[in-house]
């Protein structure tokens, strides 16, 4: 039975807007904290408080040359080997604190443009400095950090610097959250008059007469010095990019202030969006000035009606649709939470293959790539807020979530919390009222829910403040609650919490193994079959959100060390199906499903409880041709039979109304003789982002997959990179960054990612002792995404001070008293000096901590351009002379062993000359 969705190729990885470039390659990374230097002294204290004056590793200029280079998205915790001393909730992975730094240049042509840096998210708390200015503190590891760099940017040859301190000692979840900037980082440049980030709200509405229109609100901003007149044009594009509706409005954009343009798209008849037929439109919004489009944004748009009915559950486009959902955390084997977009796409396809029509982002704002995949492939999303807190900084996070995600047709519910101790109290009620109001102010088209795990019957509780009451577990309360509130829509927001280890059929508590026969579940949960039965048999419960779609690192309930990941998934950490996957297929897919579980490799005589996942009405089971069971199928509990194992073939025939509809077979497999590699697709894009999970199996002499294979498989990749390995074993002890992986119950996974700029062929090769090797070739097509190149490896010297002009030539450089902040000017090297109008002599001074590489091997102090004649002094010694007045460079060698330089330049000042440092000053290591 094929479970593959036709759409195996993810959409092109593209910039979110034109003018956006990835800022992800070659970041300097330091694991561990770098405490801020202690301030001692008048001048350093004064200067450290000034714009641009950040100190230590946050400073604009800092010696990070010895830090290793990493590419983002990055999750450093994913590289650590689990350690029992670390937090069980985080999968026993060390997290801690780290620093990232990146230099980059901005072309002169960008001067005057609006520049914005966008971090998709950083786990968990981050502080960001740009050019020595502390620009952002994050409040959640799941929210974007968006920084307007415009006022603080340098152009041309000057280097801009970013420093990020990431504190992943802090946690926001009881599951594995990763550590570091694990989502995309974009540098965006826009016209001075432009649409702000998340600034288009296209809000499809159906009129009473059935016709549709789309009110579009566009938020604009201008950094110009005078109000600007622009025309905002919005077009509705269908799947083929044909314009089906258009609107325009003139608007005046004030100075340094946001303003909204509102228009409406109408007179069109859309195809509706649904999980079965996810017809997706786009709204293209242009800001036009003098007839030219100066800024453009494309936002997803879909047409569907949505109503949660207290008696009938969800009505989508007027018809009852039961939510067949799963809860999902973001991590994946081998890559932690830095999941490539293409792998997110693959995971959504796996959920579709299981029969899902819904997904809950547990318990946080998802990656934008996830919502994009849900829009295109058709999953209805419960989009969930992370921290339940209605103080301004946290309401801002909730508002950010709604603004970012409200155009996605896939999003059908906003969840303001998951399981909060205050849910059954007046405080909780008051908080939810406020959170819901914040949501509604930005989007009143979707209901608000909260995932409650109790308090449902308290006199004052959160259910009174939401549109749809979310039940986490508590399935025994559905009826009583419905009786008490027959007019309140309810849905399960979380259910099941059943345990399975993929490929295992017998629980072994000592080995931390749970059977996959769907009998094991948490006290508060239910089996996969039982939980669905409670929901499917109650039309007033809108649907199910199974805990969970996939296993995830952390929360290894009911075990502790050495179990590192959850057992709750319908699929394992790699997305390999467990028995639950087939059970859900049988429950949820419209086509007939018949799947025999488990495999048929056991010891002779062992009594096996065979489970046939099906909703056909009768199953006949034969073993080596003899009927061993024949009977009706319970539509929820399905079909079970006890069979004493003998090797051979176990076959199931499924009947509906007396007609044979489907068959399935398992058979006893021989010893492994060779490896096999496979992937859903073998054409990849060489954009450095495309990635594909490859399946590793061992086959017997007849080419059949060996379900018990456990070979250690060594992997080699050429023409691409191996970014993670896994096997779905919750008890495995490796990090996932190794280049080998043991098969677990017959399966292993290697995730490969293309290199930026790659083209031609990539190959994955697998070897294991005693087995014939395997290889898998990929065709890599050239593809690129614009990126920001890293800055050159130089230590810029800034923070120059310039003495007053004196009449006679000083013998030595003038000295600036430590307590004198006022008599010398601040000078930035690389900016044109003014005419002084006077004549005499002037001293310019700067100090610098010598980079370790220069201390080791020596280096070169370079003054690119000096205007005026003068002498360069270093550490009290005259080192170089410039005898001519015109612009010219100066340099001097720095011997090994130096750790600090006191640099001074005594310049002759002439009234009609610009004297000073129009060029940059930097230290270069002599090593290449
Ligand atoms: C719920 C919770 C989930 C997960 C689950 C395990 O209470 O919302 O995050 O912890 O239990 O059963």
UniProtKB/TrEMBL annotation:
Residue ranges occupied by any Glycoside hydrolase family domain in the UniProt entry: 675-776
Domain Glycoside hydrolase family 2 immunoglobulin-like beta-sandwich: 194-304
InterPro entries to which the protein is assigned, alphabetical: Beta-gal/glucu_dom_sf, DUF4982, GalA-like, Galactose-bd-like_sf, GH, GH2_Domain-Containing, Glyco_hydro2_dom5, Glyco_hydro_2
Domain Glycoside hydrolase family 2 catalytic intervals: 314-387, 393-556
Keywords: Glycosidase, Hydrolase
Protein name according to UniProt: Beta-galactosidase
Protein family (similarity comment): Belongs to the glycosyl hydrolase 2 family.
Keyword Hydrolase attributed: yes
UniProt feature coiled coil, ranges: none
Domain named DUF4982: residues: 605-662
Keyword Ribosomal protein: no
């Amino acid at each position: 039975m094929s479970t593959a969705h036709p759409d195996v190729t993810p959409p092109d990885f593209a910039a979110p807007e034109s003018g956006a470039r990835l800022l992800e390659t070659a970041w300097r990374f330091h694991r561990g904290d770098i405490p801020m230097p202690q301030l001692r002294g008048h001048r350093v204290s004064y200067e450290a408080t000034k714009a641009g004056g950040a100190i230590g590793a946050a400073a604009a200029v800092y010696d990070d040359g010895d830090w290793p280079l990493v590419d983002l998205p990055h999750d450093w915790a994913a590289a650590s080997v689990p350690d029992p001393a670390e937090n069980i909730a985080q999968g026993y992975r060390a997290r801690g604190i780290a620093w990232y730094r990146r230099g980059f240049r901005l072309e002169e042509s960008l001067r005057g443009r609006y520049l914005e840096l966008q971090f998709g998210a950083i786990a968990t708390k981050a502080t960001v400095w740009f050019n020595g200015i502390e620009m952002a503190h994050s409040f959640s590891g799941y929210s974007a950090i968006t920084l307007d760099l415009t006022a603080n940017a340098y152009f041309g040859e000057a280097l801009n610097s970013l420093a990020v301190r990431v504190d992943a000692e802090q946690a926001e979840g009881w599951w594995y959250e990763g550590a570091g900037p694990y989502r995309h980082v974009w540098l965006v440049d826009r016209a001075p008059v432009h649409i702000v980030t998340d600034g288009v709200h296209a809000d499809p509405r159906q009129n009473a007469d059935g016709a549709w229109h789309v009110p579009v609100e566009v938020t604009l901003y201008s950094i110009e010095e005078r109000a600007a007149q622009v025309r905002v044009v919005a077009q509705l594009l269908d799947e083929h990019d044909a314009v089906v509706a258009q609107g325009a409005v003139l608007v005046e954009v004030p100075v340094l202030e946001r303003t909204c343009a509102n228009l409406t798209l109408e007179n069109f008849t859309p195809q509706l969006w649904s999980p079965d037929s996810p017809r997706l439109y786009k709204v293209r919004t242009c800001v036009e000035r003098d007839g030219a489009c100066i800024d453009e944004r494309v936002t997803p748009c879909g047409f569907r009606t949505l109503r949660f009915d207290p008696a009938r559950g969800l009505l989508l486009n007027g018809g009852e649709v039961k939510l067949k959902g799963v809860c999902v955390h973001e991590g994946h084997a081998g890559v932690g939470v830095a999941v490539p977009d293409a792998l997110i796409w693959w995971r959504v396809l796996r959920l579709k293959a299981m029969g899902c029509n819904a997904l809950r982002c547990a318990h946080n704002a998802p990656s934008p790539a996830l919502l994009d995949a849900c829009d295109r492939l058709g999953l209805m999303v419960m989009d969930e807020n992370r921290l339940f807190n209605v103080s301004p900084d946290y309401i801002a996070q909730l508002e950010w979530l709604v603004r970012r995600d409200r155009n996605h047709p896939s999003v059908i519910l906003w969840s303001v919390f998951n399981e909060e101790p205050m849910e059954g109290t007046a405080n909780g009620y008051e908080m939810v009222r406020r959170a819901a109001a914040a949501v509604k102010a930005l989007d009143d088209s979707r209901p608000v829910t909260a995932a409650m795990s109790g308090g449902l019957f308290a006199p004052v509780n959160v259910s009174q403040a939401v549109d749809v009451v979310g039940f986490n577990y508590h399935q025994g309360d559905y009826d009583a609650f419905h009786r008490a509130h027959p007019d309140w829509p309810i849905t399960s927001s979380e259910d099941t919490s059943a345990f399975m280890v993929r490929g295992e059929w017998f629980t072994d508590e000592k080995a931390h193994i749970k059977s996959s026969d769907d009998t094991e579940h948490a006290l508060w949960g239910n089996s996969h079959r039982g939980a669905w039965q409670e929901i499917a048999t109650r039309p007033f419960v809108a649907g199910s959100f199974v805990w969970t779609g996939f296993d995830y690192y952390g929360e290894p309930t009911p075990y502790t060390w050495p179990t590192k990941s959850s057992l709750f998934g319908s699929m394992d950490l790699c997305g390999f199906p467990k028995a639950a996957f087939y059970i859900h297929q049988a429950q949820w897919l419209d086509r007939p499903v018949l799947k025999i579980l488990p495999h048929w490799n056991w010891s002779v005589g062992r009594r096996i409880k065979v489970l046939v996942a099906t909703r056909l009405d009768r199953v006949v089971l034969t073993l080596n041709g003899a009927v061993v069971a024949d009977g009706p199928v319970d539509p929820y509990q399905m079909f079970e039979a006890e069979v004493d194992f003998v090797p051979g073939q176990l076959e199931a025939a499924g009947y509906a109304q007396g007609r044979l509809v489907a068959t399935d077979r398992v058979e006893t497999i021989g010893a492994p003789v060779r490896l096999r590699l496979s992937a859903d697709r073998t054409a990849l894009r060489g954009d450095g982002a495309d990635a594909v999970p490859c399946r590793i199996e061992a086959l017997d002499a007849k080419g059949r997959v060996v379900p018990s294979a456990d070979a250690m498989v060594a992997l080699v990749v050429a023409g691409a990179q191996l970014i993670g390995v896994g096997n779905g074993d919750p008890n495995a002890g490796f990090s996932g960054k190794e280049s080998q992986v043991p098969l677990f119950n017959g399966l292993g996974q290697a995730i490969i990612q293309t290199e930026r700029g790659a083209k031609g062929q990539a190959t994955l090769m697998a070897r294991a002792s005693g087995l014939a090797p395997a290889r898998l070739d990929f065709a890599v097509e050239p593809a690129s995404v614009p990126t920001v190149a890293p800055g050159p490896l130089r230590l810029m010297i800034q923070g120059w001070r310039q003495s007053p002009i004196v009449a006679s030539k000083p013998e030595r450089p003038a000295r600036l008293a430590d307590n004198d902040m006022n008599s010398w000017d601040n000078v930035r090297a690389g900016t044109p000096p003014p005419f002084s109008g006077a004549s005499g002599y002037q001293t310019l001074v700067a100090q610098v901590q010598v980079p370790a590489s220069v201390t080791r091997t020596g280096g070169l102090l370079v003054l690119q351009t000096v205007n005026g004649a003068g002498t360069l002094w270093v550490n009290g010694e005259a080192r170089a002379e410039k005898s001519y007045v015109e612009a010219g460079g100066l340099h001097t060698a720095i011997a090994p062993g130096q750790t600090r330089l006191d640099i001074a330049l005594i310049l002759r000042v002439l009234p009609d000359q610009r004297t000073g440092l129009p060029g940059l000053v930097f230290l270069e290591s002599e090593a290449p």
